[in-house]
Amino acid sequence: xxxxxxxxxxxxxxxxxxxxxxxxxxxxxxxxxxxxxxxxxxxxxxxxxxxxxxxxxxxxxxxxxxxxxxxxxxxxxxxxxxxxxxxxxxxxxxxxxxxxxxxxxxxxxxxxxxxx
Length: 116
Fold this sequence. Notes:
Mean pLDDT: 79
Number of helices: 3
Helix content: 25-40%
Structural class: alpha/beta
Oligomer: single chain
Shape: globular
């Protein structure tokens, strides 16, 4: 993964889906090494990265942040590994959150161990 040249960071949510591939191709054609985007309120990062990687030849695609709370950790790691295998040029992931964990959205049923 070559990140020795400048890259582009952008919020891609306002772009219509049909404009995403051409935008990534233009970033690549202008000579940038990477296109980084944030996972906001619009598109899921791993799916979007798959599309962008498929549209380009040399551009590294990266998530400025992929919201960790919306993913099961093993599934997220497997998805990132699959992208690395399918697109050897490169993808890079920033996992995290800009806010505390939304515990009210997480439901988990628990019970005491049975003594019988």
